[in-house]
């Protein structure tokens, strides 16, 4: 069992137990030097078991990473949810005199080791997140935005009530008259997309309605939308939990000669004001990344400065359903905008 | 005269000429260690004169700093011009596999030395910019967004045609019927605000019109607006070159019982869509920070990777005047939206 990191354990202790030199310990922990992978792994295991806490220079710089297990690189900084989170974290960091560094995805552990940040915000940490494991091993304070998949009692995270929000959208579609509600799912292990799929399946089971689920790639939901609309029993409503889903459904519906909202309802999770002016405007679920990131960044700074953060465990942040024309098939008083 | 930085000059060369140890050279250049300020200055001067180029670890991280000489800290990351520039730089950096760190203003040189970025974007570099001098001395590649005030032939910068853009706004106000156009100026030395004031004075002189100029604080233009409106000879149009000017003029006009656009025209430089929905909507000059920052970041990456950048010297980037109700006092065909 790993011990809680302690400043009393020295690099010499780790070297003695692992049976290597202090230089090798240093290199192994900093992803530097030349050594076999098994030696590197052994040193890291011993360091973790002893609770070794490396001395770190205070750089007054915080890091932000999106470590979800998407294949290779994807331009998350241009997606409104993430660009708003980055802007919010930067603003809060600056208020407290900290800088903020945002790395691209698909960055190796070496890069994180070189960075020497005082603390780290991790967004959508997936199963077996190696960046998370490495940061915790090195004693770098971490606050999560979106629950880490394998959350431990010491973890601090800020997240939405994903289950409640998804139920809100599905109920809204049902109240608008939909009887065959489909979900665009994803093939990543992060909590968000998994909770969306689990909640959807439960909701369908409770109501005895069919599960119409297709897995999409975040960058391009179009093929998954096409599969849904080409079914023998196509859906009469689609909810997509990523930003680009709304545009993809609008476009595919046009191709299939379907009118929105008359033939097909559509809603998606998005922070983009672009959906106010599409034809028709699209109902969106807002996760308020600005507010959630503000809370997470303030908690991280409290941790970094050695204070006791105002919370332990999770903070649940509100969502908002913005009902627009794309889901308004029935009289307005049937709609809830929780 | 400083020589062009060269990898052939060693730290030992600097130590010999400066008459100090190599450790002292290292400490002086990295803002570390204890020594008198005069020793530190001497070592840095010698390093610069010899063209010493410190070996740097490649971190694949770029930096972005706003070094304009505003007093202490101001939350630039929440101003649309800068938040859009940060978003654009982050996206372009990520496309090329780089991270991006954004520091708050009022950061000491020590922090920049610790950062070890591969290259740096500097926005609105003022007169005597110490961060700029330090980066150049340490051989860190720099690309400027907004001309550095004391530009040298080797500088690479991306900027708007500030003079042309300001003349466009002033002509627009004049064509809309204004005869007493005022400018909100600033007390910083960066190129942008100085060029705004110089162009305004020239434009007034050419037309024999009065100079109605008040200096504002960027964070709160309200006192300067109040001084303009309280004059015995108040203006009938105001141009504010910062984002918050439009809101400040709308609010002050209400307080003075002035109707916009009937009694007072107002335009400001802004990237904020909020001015589409104010009462009335406000005419804005857009400097397109997204496009300008994309060009600057791509040039910086070319420099960092040892290539010859596609340009040397300056790149002039377009502006757009978005004419709205706040300057529409006369028939629409009198308006130009260059």
From TrEMBL, chains A, B:
PROSITE patterns named in the record: HTH_LACI_1 (PS00356), HTH_LACI_2 (PS50932)
Q: Under which name does UniProt file this protein?
A: LacI family transcriptional regulator
Q: Name one Pfam family in it.
A: Peripla_BP_3
What InterPro entries does the record tag this protein with?
Answer: HTH_LacI, LacI/GalR-like_sensor, Lambda_DNA-bd_dom_sf, Peripla_BP_I
Q: Which PANTHER family match?
A: LACI-RELATED TRANSCRIPTIONAL REPRESSOR, LACTOSE OPERON REPRESSOR
Which species is this UniProt entry from? Nonomuraea polychroma
| Molecular function per GO | DNA-binding transcription factor activity; transcription cis-regulatory region binding
Q: Give TM segment ranges.
A: none
Keyword terms: DNA-binding, Transcription, Transcription regulation
Query: Start and end of every HTH lacI-type domain?
Result: 9-60
């Amino acid at each position: 069992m790993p011990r809680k990191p302690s400043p009393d354990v020295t690099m010499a202790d780790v070297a003695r137990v692992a049976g290597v030199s202090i230089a090798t310990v240093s290199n192994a922990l900093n992803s530097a030097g030349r050594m076999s992978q098994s030696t590197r792994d052994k040193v890291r295991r011993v360091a973790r078991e002893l609770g070794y806490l490396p001395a770190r220079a205070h750089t007054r710089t915080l890091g932000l990473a999106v470590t979800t297990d998407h294949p290779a690189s994807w331009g998350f900084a241009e997606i409104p949810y993430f660009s708003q989170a980055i802007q919010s974290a930067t603003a809060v960091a600056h208020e407290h005199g900290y800088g903020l560094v945002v790395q691209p995805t698909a960055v190796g552990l070496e890069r994180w080791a070189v960075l020497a940040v005082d603390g780290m915000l991790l967004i959508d940490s997936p199963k077996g997140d190696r960046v998370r494991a490495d940061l915790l091993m090195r004693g770098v304070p971490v606050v999560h935005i979106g629950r880490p998949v394998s959350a431990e009692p010491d973890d601090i995270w800020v997240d939405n009530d994903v289950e409640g929000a998804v139920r809100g959208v599905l109920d809204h579609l049902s109240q608008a008259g939909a009887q065959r509600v489909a979900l665009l799912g994803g093939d990543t292990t992060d909590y968000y997309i998994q909770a969306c799929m689990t909640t959807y399946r439960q909701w369908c089971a409770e109501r005895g309605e069919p599960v119409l689920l297709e897995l999409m790639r975040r960058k391009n939901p179009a093929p998954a939308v096409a599969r849904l609309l080409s079914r023998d029993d196509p859906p009469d409503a689609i909810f997509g939990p990523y930003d680009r889903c709304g545009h993809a459904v609008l476009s595919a519906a046009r191709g299939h000669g379907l009118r929105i909202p008359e033939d097909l309802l559509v809603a998606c999770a998005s922070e983009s004001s672009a959906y106010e002016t599409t034809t028709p405007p699209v109902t969106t679920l807002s996760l308020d990344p600005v507010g959630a990131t503000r809370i997470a960044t303030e908690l991280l700074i409290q941790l970094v400065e050695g204070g006791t953060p105002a919370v332990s465990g999770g903070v649940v942040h509100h969502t908002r359903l913005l009902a627009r024309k794309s889901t308004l098939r029935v009289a307005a008083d049937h709609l809830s905008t929780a």
